[in-house]
Write a structure and sequence with these properties.
Helices cover 37% and strands 20% of the residues. It has 389 residues and is α/β, with parallel strands linked by helices. It folds into 2 domains: 201 residues, Rossmann fold (3-Layer(aba) Sandwich); 173 residues, Glycogen Phosphorylase B (Rossmann fold, 3-Layer(aba) Sandwich), CATH 3.40.50. The strands form 3 sheets. It has an 8-stranded mixed sheet, with helices on both faces. A 6-stranded parallel sheet has the order 13-12-11-14-15-16, with helices on both faces. A two-stranded antiparallel ribbon has the order 5-6. Helix 1 packs across helix 15, helix 7 crosses helix 10 and helix 8 packs across helix 13. It starts with a strand and ends with a helix.
């Protein structure tokens, strides 16, 4: 099958949506499909980036010339010409879109794609409860285009039923929604030496203090990730250390919070770290925790990375997010009331007291990308044969 993915970005750009797109496309190429991935080139030079074409692990990767993001939204330049070339050279059997990505609206102007089935991976809604007033205003204008995109698509892939149930836009097109969880590739992680004798593991161990319960958080430092809540909660936790990995606009604010609360000995912002160090941190922590209080956290790919390392996960019951579903379907998963410091502290204390018993449970991991790719391929086939409603 000839598959064209159109996404927002692609690694080395950091993000769960980007990692998933890479893992899925590489797995599809490994299975013998002809796979093209078309994304914005995130390596901007002043206001724009350049178009580049490479082949990475069997995937034809096109990073399109783009305008620097405005309100977190990059715009592809030369979209029509590139689309025409791709269709002429690749003749895709199916176009797999990854939403949100306003550049996709340009597809509606090109009837040459209308005879090709579209599948949309709905990673998250464009706006949620805590989105800015400006974003909500912009969305009011573009929502009709989003609806046209959905109507044109054969199906919508959503990572959990929980998210689909809480999305106003998806609820209007429930008959098109198909629940298939996200997944991750593990081959490179398996090759990464994370034993106690390895250099990366030893370097990571130096970041942890002796005789402290190890809490880890990985995520962009932005409003909906809610790292502020985790730092506040650390004031009520003794013999506990929190490491926060990620970069973003809230770094200085969070750092000031740590100093103001006198938590410099127990909380540290590590900023961005190398891929190998991130996995060493996941392998060496004891609890991986999240605090996102908005549906913008639709799934949490980093949670399945923590599961892969057999870590305990602790997440909030944020309405409409898939985090709670992931924890409920994992034998080392725990859920606390969103933004409830008392409940968070109580859950951490419970885990501390029962740590050995919890960790004695067998490793449980159901999100290998090879299995997720099989489900998606079966779904592709039902669309091509017309078996889907």
């Amino acid at each position: 099958m000839k598959i064209l993915h159109i996404g927002k970005f692609y690694p080395p750009y950091h993000g769960g949506m980007e990692n998933y797109l890479r893992d899925l496309s590489e797995e599809q190429a490994k299975k013998g499909h002809q796979v093209t991935v078309w994304v914005h080139n995130h390596q901007w030079q002043n206001l724009t980036s350049k178009t580049t074409k490479t082949v990475v692990k069997g995937v034809q990767l096109i990073r399109q010339k783009s305008l620097k993001p405005l309100l977190f939204t990059p715009i592809m330049l030369g979209f029509g010409r590139q689309l025409k070339d791709i269709i002429k050279e690749q003749s895709p059997d199916l176009i797999h879109l990854h939403w949100p990505n306003p550049s996709l609206f340009k597809l509606l102007l090109h009837k040459s794609t209308f005879s090709i089935p579209w599948v949309i991976s709905w990673h998250s809604d464009m706006v949620t409860t805590r989105s800015s007033v400006m974003m909500k205003l912009i969305y009011w204008f573009i929502k009709p285009l989003e609806s046209l995109l959905i109507k044109r698509a054969s199906s919508l892939l959503v990572s959990t039923q929980t998210y689909a149930n809480h999305s106003k836009q998806l609820s209007k097109y429930a008959s098109k929604a198909k629940v298939i969880p996200l997944g991750m590739a593990s081959a490179e992680i398996d090759q990464l030496e994370l034993s106690a004798s390895s250099l990366v593991f030893q370097e990571t161990e130096q970041k942890w203090q002796a005789n402290q319960l190890r809490l880890l958080h990985i995520g962009r430092l932005t409003f909906y990730k809610n790292q502020k809540f985790l730092i506040d909660a650390m004031s009520a936790l003794l013999d506990t250390q929190l490491l926060v990995v990620g970069e973003g606009g809230l770094y200085q604010e969070l750092n000031d919070q740590i100093i103001e609360l006198g938590l410099a000995e127990s909380v540290e912002l590590l900023g961005a770290v190398e891929w190998s160090q991130a996995h060493a941190l996941l392998a060496s922590c004891e609890i991986f925790c999240m605090a996102s209080d908005d549906r913008a956290e639709s799934f949490g790919v980093v949670l399945i990375e923590a599961m892969y390392h057999d870590r305990i996960i602790l997440v909030p019951d944020t309405a409409g997010s898939g985090m709670q579903w992931l924890a409920a379907n994992y034998n080392k998963g725990f859920v606390y009331k969103s933004n409830d410091q008392g409940d968070f502290v109580a859950k951490v204390s419970f885990i501390r007291e029962n740590f050995a018993k919890i960790m004695s449970k067998p490793k449980q991991f159901n999100y290998q990308i090879k299995h997720i790719a099989e489900f998606i391929e079966q779904h592709y086939q039902t669309i091509q044969t017309g078996d889907e409603p």
